[in-house]
Amino acid sequence: MLYTKDGFPEVNEIVLCEVTKIYGNSTFVQLLEYEKEGVLTISEIAPGRIRNLRDHVVENKVIVCKVLRVDPKLNRIDVSLRRVPIQVMKDKQESIKKEEYSERIYMDVAKEVGSDKDTLFENTYEPIFEEYETVYDALYDIMIDNKKLDMFTEIDQKTKDAFLKIINERIKPEEVVFKENFSLKSTAGNGSILIKDAISESLKPLNYDKVSIIYTAAGEFAVTITHDDLKSAQKLFDKFRDSLVKIAKEQKMILKITE
Question: I want to staple 1 with a disulfide (CB 3.0 to 4.6 A). Which of 103, 179, 224, 233 is the partner?
Fold first, then answer.
């Protein structure tokens, strides 16, 4: 769902652009999320010498760029293609795919209740962008906690029911990896055994199998928790930490957790 943003983009913002015109050594692009024109000079297209500009950009091609300069008075926006890291480009493209998926969800909800997508969006966009960066982020959060749908106060119960049904059918939890480092040391003769037992005992209250403890150096460890919800992963870690703090104090061990 490529909604239009007001104003100008921020410097260093990653934006989706469509090549509209190539003139000399300059490429003109349309910033799709702002409906504004940007300029991509030949030096910002790719590293090294460019022999043929059209080997890199052609009219109507959609590219991911980084905003270099913004001058609202001159209505000029300079962008760069070469300064966008591959992973950042992939993340932006994935974000766009998710927004397009969100648009299909809106279309199906509107069809089910006899409305239209644009009206449905107008009745829900304000609470979404008060708290979320994208529409998909909001829909995903609703899937995790259906009560979050209550933020849509401008739609009736029939529409809410249709939203819940389609969101729960179409959006599946994505696994995230929560990671935290800690050190646990003991001066006792059997310190290594005490440390091993302390970690093992602290894992038991979690009753969760997607937890890994990695030994990184002498007395240094990393705990990783794979979960479909970051907040839930944080709660599991908090439970692990609280137990480890208690055991370390009882056994006179030195515990440090990297926040």
Answer: 103
d(CA 187, CA 206) in angstroms, rounded, equals 28
pLDDT band at 172 (very low <50, low <70, confident <90, very high): confident
Please write the tens of the pLDDT for every residue from 44-77: 999 888 888 888 899 999 999 999 999 999 999 9
Residues 114 and 143 in one domain: yes
Closest Cα to residue 129, out of 151, 147, 105? 151
Number of domains in the chain: 3
Neighbours of 137 (CB within 10 A): 16
Domain contains 155: yes
Q: Which domain holds residue 181?
A: 176-257
Of the residues 82, 117, 140, the one at which a domain ends:
82
Judge whether 244 and 255 are in contact, CB under 8 Å. Answer: yes
Q: For residue range 204-223, list pLDDT tens digits in order.
A: 999 888 999 999 888 999 99
Sheet (strand 254-257) strand order: 211-217, 220-227, 176-185, 254-257
Question: Among 136, 170, 204, which residue terminates a domain?
Answer: 170
Does residue 4 lie in a domain region? no
* Residue-wise DSSP of 142-187: HHH-GGGGGG-TTS-HHHHHHHHHHHHHH--PPPEEEEEEEEEE--
* pTM (predicted TM-score): 0.64
